[in-house]
Design a protein that fits this description.
By secondary structure, the chain is an alpha/beta fold. It contains 14 helices and eleven strands. It has an eight-stranded parallel beta sheet with strand order 1-9-8-6-5-4-3-2. Helix 2 (26-34) packs parallel to helix 3.
């Protein structure tokens, strides 16, 4: 087990990944701790005030927890490519009354400075980062405030950069993971390196504790990752149907649909590579979608929200890892304890 986490009261090496946009709730974070592990409040796509409320809700339960932030690593979109894509997806968006050709091109940093200031002024046990590596001053500031710093990496080169920035622990994410890849070069689709091989490459590159992530949805897979050199594992997709998860109804239904067997890595929804269940939108637009985050995220956001409200599975991001068939509708604590049963 990762010794820094043991000091925080974590005694089971199965952690719950931060799933931004709804799936991870304070109840899910708390359930992860009740199972002996750790959960993360996702800061992505939230205002600073909303993040503070979520932190307060988990803190009131008196359990160890972490907070995850999207570190700035923007991929500016070409304005002409943005407009072409806005017109290309207009028929899909128009089904729900959304006018994408009229959309404004929005680039932002997800309230980065304010969220970092919040975590420095009101420290939490663990802070993790994905999408980018923060400046060393941010990392050192959080460590000085008493937070353990975890950095998501997808290669040995990224692991070395994270170690140089001062990270305490690395979350090693393989391409099998559902949702966004944490790659530092999102203009490229990450290589499909098996998790156990990736762990070996990172372990050879840096001496830091490693948390394995990506496609882990069974006790055997969890045990295999630990044997391959991980000190702990982090699971996400397998929790998306948990009772405590805030996953939307159409997303839950799609995960349970035996006809949806395939996943695809696509930038069609956000301009950043992410693994999802295939649907009509990914089939039509994956090849044409330009790299451009967060511009494409903001472009497709109104369509996705309207589609989710209408129960339309074909125009929402059905984030899912390769182990999605193992997601079950039951209490999260039971799922997490089962995953740890083979250790």
């Amino acid at each position: 087990m990762v010794s820094p986490l043991v000091a925080l009261g974590v005694d089971t090496p199965v952690l719950a990944a931060p799933m931004a946009g709804g799936p991870t709730t304070p109840a899910l974070v708390t359930a992860a701790a009740r199972a002996g592990g750790l959960g993360f409040v996702p800061g992505g796509y939230r205002t600073t005030a909303a993040l503070a409320e979520q932190i307060a809700a988990v803190r009131s339960a008196g359990v160890p927890f972490g907070v995850n932030l999207f570190a700035p690593n923007p991929v500016p979109v070409d304005p002409d490519a943005f407009r072409r894509y806005a017109h290309a997806i207009a028929p899909d968006a128009g089904i729900h009354g959304v006018d994408t050709p009229a959309a404004e091109l929005v680039e932002d940093d997800d309230h980065w400075a304010d969220k970092v200031a919040l975590l420095l002024s009101d420290p939490v046990p663990v802070v993790s980062f994905t999408f980018g590596i923060p400046q060393a001053s941010v990392v050192s500031g959080l460590r000085a405030a008493g937070s353990l710093v975890v950095q998501t990496v997808t290669s040995a080169a990224e692991a070395r950069a994270a170690a140089e920035a001062g990270a305490d622990v690395l979350a090693v994410q393989a391409s099998a993971a559902g949702g966004h890849s944490g790659t530092l070069t999102p203009q490229h689709t990450p290589a499909a390196v098996p998790l156990e091989d990736l762990l070996g490459e990172v372990r050879a590159a840096v001496p830091l504790p490693l948390v394995a992530a990506g496609g882990l949805a069974t006790p055997a897979a969890v045990a295999g990752a630990l044997r391959a050199g991980a000190d702990a594992v982090m699971v996400g997709t397998v929790l998306t149907r948990a009772e405590e998860a805030g996953t939307s109804a159409p997303h839950r239904a799609a995960l349970a649909d035996p006809a949806r067997t395939g996943t695809v890595v696509t930038r069609a929804f956000t301009g950043r590579p992410a693994r999802a269940l295939r649907n009509e939108f990914t089939d039509r637009h994956t090849d044409a979608a330009p790299a451009g985050y967060p511009a494409l995220h903001h472009l497709t956001g109104p369509m996705r929200r309207a589609a989710a409200a209408a129960g339309d599975q074909e125009r929402i991001h059905l984030w899912a890892g390769t182990g999605h068939r193992h997601a079950t509708e039951e209490p999260a604590e039971r799922i997490l304890r089962r995953l740890a049963s083979g250790i």
